[in-house]
Specification:
Ferritin; single chain; binds fe (ii) ion; 166 residues; three-stranded antiparallel beta sheet; mainly alpha; 3 domains; 4 helices; Rubrerythrin, domain 2
């Protein structure tokens, strides 16, 4: 594929990924304000933008490998976020005295370490039959296995803030 084609796919992938996340946040807000129908619309559009994002990713050379390769890629991405990317963002937030942003970045950094741990476990367990249920903290993104904890170990959120992943 031409380098322009690759570049434009990457641009479209990033834009659609952002749109999906943004519309999901808009849906939560609409739900909280009591607009169920509008929340449903935002969720539907969010899902559709995810369809676009995945479609572009599939077209990008080498972005989707075998599951074994994808686990390795996903593990590496979490490590990079934990060790390189978030520390830089945290440093800037500290320097600028942006407390809430520093807290969010710091919790995300800690959570990426947990994500890496779960991927590592999955790589080791790939051929075993072990079945695990995951619960995601809706405040910080921490993932618990088997049952939600009383309090999130990263952000302290209560049990009710954990969402079971189907
Ligand atoms: Fe992560
Ligand atoms: Fe949390």
């Amino acid at each position: 594929m031409s380098s322009k084609g690759e570049k434009n796919l990457a641009i479209a992938f990033a834009a659609e990924s952002k749109a999906a996340a943004r519309n999901a946040a808009f849906a939560q807000k609409a739900q909280a304000e009591g607009y169920s129908q509008i929340a449903r619309l935002f969720r539907a559009v969010s899902d559709a933008e995810s369809v676009h994002a995945r479609r572009y990713l599939m077209l990008m050379r080498g972005k989707i490998g075998s599951t074994e390769e994808n686990l390795k890629t996903a593990f590496k991405n979490e490590i990079t976020a934990n060790e390189d990317e978030y520390p830089k963002l945290i440093k800037d937030a500290v320097e600028e005295g942006l407390k809430p942003i520093e807290k969010a970045f710091s919790q995300s950094r800690d959570v990426e370490d947990r994500h890496a741990e779960l991927y590592k476990k999955a790589m080791n367990d790939m051929l075993s039959e072990r079945e695990t249920v995951y619960y995601v903290c809706q405040v910080c993104g921490y993932i618990a296995e088997d049952s939600p904890p009383e309090n999130c170990p990263v952000c302290g959120a209560v049990k009710g803030k954990f969402k079971k992943v189907a």
